[in-house]
Amino acid sequence: MKYNIYKANERGTADHGWLKANFSFSFAHYYNPQNINFGVLRVLNDDYIAGGMGFGTHPHDNMEIISIPLKGALKHRDSMSNKWIPLYTGEVQVMSAGTGIQHSEMNNHPTEEVNLFQIWILPQQQNVTPRYNQKKFESSERFNKLQILVSSIDNPVEGSLTIHQNAKIARIDLDENSLFTYEVVDKNNGVYVMVIEGELSIENEVLTKRDAIGIEQTNSIKIESKTTSELLFIEVPMKF
């Protein structure tokens, strides 16, 4: 097993007033040559967006983009439908940019802050037809068990959203002092584990809120929660 620890306070940051962002990997004006990506996982941003604010219309292509609101709600509009679609906490959004798409993402509330994870994954196939989907995932379905949010379009997990990559995104909410073993789907994949909330131990490393660990060259990952904890798993190929 090979792994690296990424502490929450070592992430890149940006403060634009209306947007406070934390970057797990190099992004925008934050550049760390030692931390560009984790395999095909290119972006994991932890964004806080003020009420009524957001990202105006901008382009993307050849990227799988996943948004996970943790608090509050977003609204999304793109060049495929040109209508605003709300995205609430508990829901997950996937967008395959493919040949090219224009989209906007705004806070759906005029005064309350929204907090979300935005994830970019490099696709295994270029220039696909752009597509968009979202789905609600009940928190009760991930209590002490893995809940698959996103899987590969070529090998989909029933009930999950799909993207053009041999990847898996999942969540689990662990009770205090509980044990869980994450089984890696593909030996060529690595797993980036983000602690959303709580305190836990992985490979005798203690991680707390927004700490992360990138693990590769293993078939399984053993986790021991010290408090009630929420985790995000992003399993991706380590080679482009």
Automatic annotation (TrEMBL):
<keyword id="KW-0408">Iron</keyword>
<feature type="binding site">
    <location>
        <position position="60"/>
    </location>
    <ligand>
        <name>Fe cation</name>
    </ligand>
</feature>
<feature type="binding site">
    <location>
        <position position="105"/>
    </location>
    <ligand>
        <name>Fe cation</name>
    </ligand>
</feature>
<feature type="binding site">
    <location>
        <position position="58"/>
    </location>
    <ligand>
        <name>Fe cation</name>
    </ligand>
</feature>
<keyword id="KW-0479">Metal-binding</keyword>
<feature type="domain" description="Pirin N-terminal">
    <location>
        <begin position="12"/>
        <end position="121"/>
    </location>
</feature>
<dbReference type="Pfam" id="PF02678">
    <property type="entry name" value="Pirin"/>
</dbReference>
<dbReference type="GO" id="GO:0046872">
    <property type="term" value="F:metal ion binding"/>
</dbReference>
<dbReference type="InterPro" id="IPR012093">
    <property type="entry name" value="Pirin"/>
</dbReference>
<protein>
    <recommendedName>
        <fullName>Pirin N-terminal domain-containing protein</fullName>
    </recommendedName>
</protein>
<feature type="domain" description="Quercetin 2,3-dioxygenase C-terminal cupin">
    <location>
        <begin position="155"/>
        <end position="236"/>
    </location>
</feature>
<dbReference type="InterPro" id="IPR011051">
    <property type="entry name" value="RmlC_Cupin_sf"/>
</dbReference>
<dbReference type="Pfam" id="PF17954">
    <property type="entry name" value="Pirin_C_2"/>
</dbReference>
<dbReference type="InterPro" id="IPR014710">
    <property type="entry name" value="RmlC-like_jellyroll"/>
</dbReference>
<feature type="binding site">
    <location>
        <position position="103"/>
    </location>
    <ligand>
        <name>Fe cation</name>
    </ligand>
</feature>
<dbReference type="InterPro" id="IPR041602">
    <property type="entry name" value="Quercetinase_C"/>
</dbReference>
<comment type="similarity">
    <text>Belongs to the pirin family.</text>
</comment>
<dbReference type="InterPro" id="IPR003829">
    <property type="entry name" value="Pirin_N_dom"/>
</dbReference>
